[in-house]
Design brief:
The complex is a heterodimer.
Chain A (H helix, E strand, L loop, with lengths): L1 H21 L5 H17 L3 H8 L1 H4 L3 H18 L2 H6 L5 H17 L5
Helix pairs in contact in A: 2-5
Chain B lengths: L8 H13 L5 H29 L8 H17 L2 H9 L1 H4 L2 H14 L5 H8 L1 H25 L1
Helix pairs in contact in B: 2-3, 3-6, 6-7, 6-8
The chains are: A mainly alpha, B mainly alpha.
InterPro entries (chain A): Spore_V_AE, SpoVA
Pfam families (chain A): SpoVAC_SpoVAEB
Protein name (chain A): Stage V sporulation protein AE
């Protein structure tokens, strides 16, 4: 049942983030950075892909998957075109996330006015 | 310097008093909220992803991009409407950790600094929070990719 797996795994990753915030007393910026780096490390160890197979969006929606996709893009391009691929490939997989975040944020700033 | 290495006795005494009066964070309840809300956001992502696979010609692997884009669009929309921030105060990490939190950080910074103009306000401040995520993500990915290509 992929929906249940997504719910549980996604929820647990958020709990880790909440623990870093509350118990570790980190700022949100530090917490998100730590999660992204751990996602990248997990992919480096080859552990993130199995998690995606198991939990689907539960593993791809949290910010940890951003680190995973960065490593993935870099390694894919490195395989295809050598060492320079690490530089050219880093943003290949994450382009959808970053580009849409920039575009929609800019549109939001065009349309909405700050409140309060 | 905010933190000197050796606090003077009076500073120690102050810290003792301050920590006594610090409001204890309800860690258990916060974690439960983060689990439920975060889990629901991921379930919504799975629903959207399944929808793309079912109604359009996407596969398991390619459905990720439009799903993330859709979630980011929704997060920016709700941020603009002022709903996301209220929701985020309740959910804590439950809305901050999913990719929607990344979008919310960018959109809210962009909207907030709109009065300073589009170049110096919106564009320059958009990555204020999200920038640290991108910098550390890219740098760690670079190191890991180099290690993997050289060793394996």
């Amino acid at each position: 049942m992929i929906f249940l797996n997504a719910f549980i795994v996604g929820g647990l990753i958020c709990v880790i983030g909440q623990l870093l915030l509350d118990v570790g007393k980190l700022t949100p910026g530090h917490t998100l950075s730590a999660l992204v780096v751990s996602g990248a490390i997990l992919d480096g160890l080859g552990l993130y892909e199995p998690l995606i197979d198991f939990a689907g969006a539960g593993a791809t929606v949290p910010i940890t998957s951003f680190g995973n996709s960065l490593v993935h893009g870099a390694l894919q391009e490195a395989e295809a075109s050598g060492m320079i691929g690490i530089i050219t490939g880093i943003f290949q997989v994450t382009s959808a996330g970053i580009s849409s975040a920039i575009i929609f944020s800019f549109l939001a700033a065009l349309i909405f006015k700050p409140k309060g | 310097m905010e933190k000197s290495k050796k606090p003077t006795p009076s500073q120690k005494a102050y810290q003792k008093i301050a920590s006594k009066h610090e409001i204890k964070r309800p860690v258990g309840i916060n974690c439960l909220k983060a689990f439920i809300i975060g889990g629901l956001v991921c379930t919504l992502g799975q629903l959207i992803s399944n929808g793309y696979i079912y109604f359009f010609d996407f596969t398991d692997k390619t459905a990720g991009d439009p799903t993330v884009a859709t979630l980011i669009f929704l997060a920016c929309l709700f941020t603009g409407l002022g709903i996301y921030d209220k929701f985020g105060q309740f959910a804590g990490a439950g809305t901050a950790v999913p990719v929607t939190g990344f979008a919310n950080a960018m959109a809210s910074a962009a909207i907030e600094h709109r009065t300073e103009g589009f170049v110096l306000g919106v564009a320059a401040n958009m990555f204020k929070l999200a920038g640290s995520v991108i910098v550390f993500g890219v740098f760690s990915a670079f190191i890991i990719a180099i290690i993997k290509t050289l060793l394996f």
